[in-house]
Every structure is written in C-alpha cells, then in structure tokens.
Amino acid sequence: MPHRRGGEVVRDAGIIVIGDEVLSGFTRDINIYTLSSKLRDLGVECTIFMGVRDREEDIKKAIDYITAGWDPEYIITTGGLGITHDDITVEAISKALNLRLRESSEARKFVLEAMQRLKETVTDEDSLKKLYMLPEGFSPLRNPVGVAPGLIGEVVLGGRRRTIIVLPGVPAEAEGIFVTNIAGRIMKRPEGVERVYREIAVRSRESKIHRVLKTLQKEFEGLKVGSYPQTPEVVLIRLSGSKEEVERGFKRLVDLLQEVVGPAGKG
Questions:
Q1: Ordered structural domains, the chain, with CATH
Q2: Of 136, 127, 152, 82, nearest in space to 104 by CA
Q3: CA-CA distance, 66 to 52, in Å (whole number)?
C-alpha cells in the first residue's frame, strides 16, 4: 500500500539483481534501467537497487536491508529462476519470508504451454517441477518470452503490507512479464501529488553553474534538482517534483542561468 513521506503520498520500489554472473562482470545488467524507467512511467519511484550473488543468505539479507532502510511498497527481484542447481531465488525468498513452498497447477500450465509454444520437448517433466513451486500466497505470472513464470505476492514485512515481484534475469523475459502482467496492476498515485520531470541542456561547465543549482535547491525545498554532465561543456539539468513546483522552479532556473551563462538552451 502507498505510504506518506513528508506529507506526500509515496509509491516506491526497491530492485534486487540476483546472479553471480552479474557481480562477476560476465553479464551486463540492463534490468535496473528497464524496470526503473517503466516504474517511473507508472508513478512509482525506484529508491534503491542492489546486486547479490546466488546465495540464500545474501538474498535474505538484501530483502531485510531494503525493507529496513528504504521501506518500499514494492520489492522486485530479477534472476535465479530456472531448473539448474544455482537457480535458488524462489527457495531463498520462501525462507526469507517464512513461507512454505507449494506446487502450483497454474504455474505448471504456464510452463507446459510455454514449452509447446517454443517447440521445446519435455523429456523429463520432473526436472521442470522446480518451476511449479511457489511460496504460499504467491501467484505465477505468465512468461510471454521464455518458460520460467514470474511470481507475485503480497506479504506483511517490516510492519506493513508490501508486494513482492520475482522476475527472470533474462532482460526480454523480465520486461515481457512486467509489461504483460505487472504494469496493469500498478496504478498511478491514487492521491497526493504526481511527480513530473523537466530538463534543460546548458552549454557550460558544471563548476560554473553549481551555485545556481544550490540556490535553486535552497529556494525550492520540495524540488529535486539534478545535474548530469553530458560532455565537458554541456550539462543536463533535470527538475522533478509536483507540476506546479517544477514549472515555477524551471522559470527561476532560466533566470538564474541567464545571469551566469546567458541564454541557457531548450527545456
């Protein structure tokens, strides 16, 4: 459920990337970028992401750490879904949440349908049973790209109800499951202030305009002011906050920039 932070209704998420191959540098993760941008479009802010190895204790520590430190409404994991010995994410989450695993007939249906769609032969269905096992109270999410279903469940953790979403590590599968199963379930903020963004590119070194940014942040405490150098001579400034505050802040930013660097660019 959404919660309040500083008087504003907040919907936020934490993402945990699971996989030795990512932390060892053999695989480049793009799930964080994809999922956080899609969450942003739905009015949900990603406030923390982290990576852990394929170890049960590490996955539990990550869930506990994110819950205690960032208190997000959604906790999303990617990676570790499959039938091999090191695909332990479901078991680890089950233990971390003190939930028993149960066999899901719906998950079995999703898996066998996917195998047929992909024209993969089921020579040993027993080897697929790992994909049918879900923590109690969780539901499977159909995978439109691959075989392993995702999972979703609501749990009480750290004193409040949260949604846990478990996705495969393959980027196309994680995105496919999110788009077809999750996006429709995550509604935009039902109340409070919707966060909007506005950007402007400035021909200047960051060192020349840092006082402008400091002044703007001081004058608009509810506005998030970010600066991101694109080249040594071009800085992208991004404002985020309520629509009214972003518009007021942007006008003030343009005025401040004109005093320092002249016409600032296009927003």
A1: 3-182 (3.40.980.10), 195-261 (3.30.70.1130)
A2: 136
A3: 12
Q: What is the pLDDT of residue 8?
A: 56
Q: Do 89 and 18 meet the contact criterion of CB atoms below 8 Å apart?
A: yes
- Amino acid at residue number 187: M
Rg (the chain; Cα; Å): 22
Distance CA 85, CA 80 (A): 10
Q: How many Å apart are CA 33 and CA 18, to the nearest integer?
A: 15
Which residues have C-beta within 8 Å of that of residue 39, sequence separation ≥ 6?
Answer: 13, 45, 46, 74, 186
Query: What pLDDT score was predicted for residue 267?
Result: 46
- Output the CA–CA distances (angstroms, integers) from residue 159 to 1, 19, 156, 162, 205, in the order listed: 12, 29, 6, 9, 46
- Counting Cα atoms < 13 Å in the Cβ hemisphere of 245 gives 19
Chunked into runs of 10 residues, the chain (267 residues) has average pLDDT values of 56 96 95 94 92 97 96 96 93 97 96 92 82 97 96 94 96 96 74 75 91 94 90 91 91 92 61
The full DSSP string for 85-96 is TT--HHHHHHHH
Q: Tell me how long the chain is.
A: 267
pLDDT of residue 262: 74
Report which DSSP code applies to 131: G
The structure tokens listed for 240 are 């985020």
Q: Quick one: CA dihedral 195, 199, 205, 209, positive or negative?
A: negative
Task: Report, in this order, helix, strand and coil percent for the chain, each rounded to 5.
Answer: 40, 30, 30
Tell me how far apart the alpha carbons of residues 140 and 81 are, in angstroms, rounded to a whole number.
12
Instruction: Report DSSP state, residue 243.
Output: H
For residue 11, the model assigns a pLDDT of 86
